[in-house]
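Schema walk-through. Below, the input block comes first and the output block second. Nothing else is stored per chain. Lengths vary across the set, and this one has 299 residues.
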Amino acid sequence: FTVTAVTENSAYSGTAVYNFDISYKITPRFFLSAETVDQGSALVVYGENLLEDMPVSVSVAFSYSPSVIRRGTKMYSIIPFNYKREAGEAAVTVTYGEGETVQLNYTVAAIEFPSDYEEQEITVSDETAAATINNSAAYTEYNKLVAELAKISDEEVYWTGRFIQPCDGTVTSDYAYTRYLNGKAGSTHAGVDLACDEGTPVCASNSGRVIYSGELQMSGNTVIIEHGNGLQTKYLHMSARNVETGEMVVQGQQIGAVGMTGLATGPHLHFEVDVSGACISPWPLLDGTSPIYKIQDFQ
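--- output ---
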């Protein structure tokens, strides 16, 4: 800052210039969307009062590397908790600036999922089994693709408002069901199966970018949409696909039709919600209770 003083009187007249610096430090503030998170839901880490070039990273005690989204002097990071995450007390560590750290404590609340009390027996034909559950190439194809797509995290948030159920239907297999396929223990169900008539329109749950549209042995006609920040929805076993990879879609737009392609015993849609590859329950997004919605107020 510069201050100029001008004096004019009978004894003295002249100008004096004073230069001085004023420095101030605003301490960054970090906080969580909630102090308790349910298994199958998500937690959001927020930060504000950041210098625009200040490095910030977020870490957790389990195998997951949270991405940090910067918005000027603000940041946030979405941390998913699937049905496998152990209940109890834990902490998020935020590292910023020149190595300063902040620890944010939270509690993972135990939720009674269908896997805790209900098992589902599914019988598929020999032909379907040979092409899917008894075919290592089918697993490899699907898992390799999903792992690559999980790395995608667009900076832009495409979604607006509450996510919608992609088709009307009866829930035949809920999130976290323990399933047995032809008598053999299968993986815990990562999404929700909605039984509908074949050909029922399937709509985008929210706006986003189609990062995959194709056919896979395991999941049949498949569409995967990136909604921004690694939040993705999957639509499996369809009879048809109405969109192509790279296309932008809006909420409610038809992206396909219900079918029974891939590992399926009848017409249905497998609907799944992932955050950077971790599957979470779709229900908090569909009923409006997900903490992810608070991101819209923090842009």
